[in-house]
Amino acid sequence: MFALKPLVISGREVLPLVEGGKGISVSNGESSGAWARAGGVGTFSGVNADSYDADGRLMEQHYHGRTRRERHEELIAHSIRGGIAQARIAHETSGGNGRIHMNILWEMAAAERILHGILEGAKGLVHGVTCGAGMPYKVAEICARYGVYYYPIISSARAFRALWKRSYHKFRDGLGAVVYEDPWLAGGHNGLSNAEDPRKPEPPLPRIVELRKQMNEFGLHQTPIVMAGGVWFLREWAEFLDNPDVGPIAFQFGTRPLLTQESPISREWKERLLHLRKGDILLHRFSPTGFYSSAVINPFLRELEERSRHQVPYATAPVGEMTEELAIGARGRKVHLAPADRAHALEWMAQGHTEALRTPDSTLIFVTPARAAAILRDQVDCMGCLSACMFSNWAQNEEGTTGKKADPRSFCIQKTLQDIAHTSDVDTQLMFAGHNAYRFSEDPFYTNGFIPTVKELVDRIASGD
Asked: Is-contact 391 405, C-beta < 8 A?
């Protein structure tokens, strides 16, 4: 019989089972509240969360500002209002059981302002804040102000050391746990650094042992580590339990909670998850954040791959091998390509990819007129959802720009995540998922398309399966 021991998290003894926070309405108050009610730690997303009118109807996020800066302020207001709404729903749904955490991304727009706004408006309803996608130095100080625990998401001992030395040592008592998110297995944005090879995954146990050694040096022997990314059956992680080299440990589940009755994703998304096969998840670098991320392979990702394949370097005047002229654009402006690249470009143009868009790397990508129009429209409509966006060249600074050309090889992440969260379209939108998502089709728990309640899933996970 698999025996799972409770753990003190955010000041209460709970099952060491954490719902991973999935952005833009995918982890909401209903799903996280149900997870907490089942005795674990529920996590709702504080990234552009849904809010509702007085009659309980979803308030769609429309932007009316004429400038990016004006739309950016609207987005902040949407985010704070939605985060408070989801915190209240989670609190009511939990029935006072478990713990409720909120997840934010440090690289999202106005992360500090939004975190202050939600915690101020939802006092006493949120017990902890998980935060990754960047180096969240200030999250400890902000959480201390509101009396909630903080949970940094890192992917290496080196990253935690930097956070501790710069800030966290001042707020030792508020550190609820350190979330180790495996950069090769987790869904969504992954913390792969330039020192790590995306094609050569490393086993998590030695990396967690290294993290524990680092934590012990700082006197954090009893502070739990949360293992995130690639966790399916707990029985497969038995060597992590009661292991003195690992210490207190909990496990985070991001992908499995997608397939529950309380999960707000569409029926079409759930059906797609039930039929995935091994290899159907792609680790890619198309995100406008610049981070690696993992998502289900679908026409959306295939089109992004095609953009990058239909790419050649160019020069505005002959230089080196770039001696062949090519006329592009409505005005027929001349650029210079290498002979072989010009031949490729002419071939793509003959196939209908007649629009050449410039990238920040002095290359051209060739796309259809319809695709070019969609890319340019999305760039113009930018509302500044990230601290810095490669796709639109928005940046959260005085200039409002990264200072680089907008990159047409990427996409508007706010638009696609809102669309997949609120429509049935699973083909032309980004569908984040962990690399173990194919196991839905192999796990007997989901036979005949069975979709459990959160309580049934938590009980199943706690049994070892």
From this structure: no
CB 103 within 8 A of CB 23: yes
Burial of 3 (0-12, 13-18, 19+ CB in 10 A): exposed
Percent of the chain with pLDDT over 90: 81
Closest CA to 58 of 96, 30, 36: 30
- pLDDT tens digit string along 34-75? 999 999 999 999 988 999 888 888 888 888 999 999 999 999
Distance CA 216, CA 212 (A): 6
The per-residue pLDDT for range 367-400, each reduced to its tens digit, is 999 999 999 999 999 999 999 999 999 998 888 8
CATH architecture label of 7-279+440-462: Alpha-Beta Barrel (3.20)
Those residues whose C-beta lies under 8 Å from the C-beta of residue 324, and which sit 6 or more positions away, are 336, 337, 338, 339, 341, 342
CA 323 to chain CA centroid, Å, is 43
> CATH 3.20.20.70 region(s) of the chain?
7-279+440-462
Structure tokens at 450: 């069975």
Record the tokens describing residue 282, joined without a space: 């792609």
| pLDDT above 80 (res 191) | no
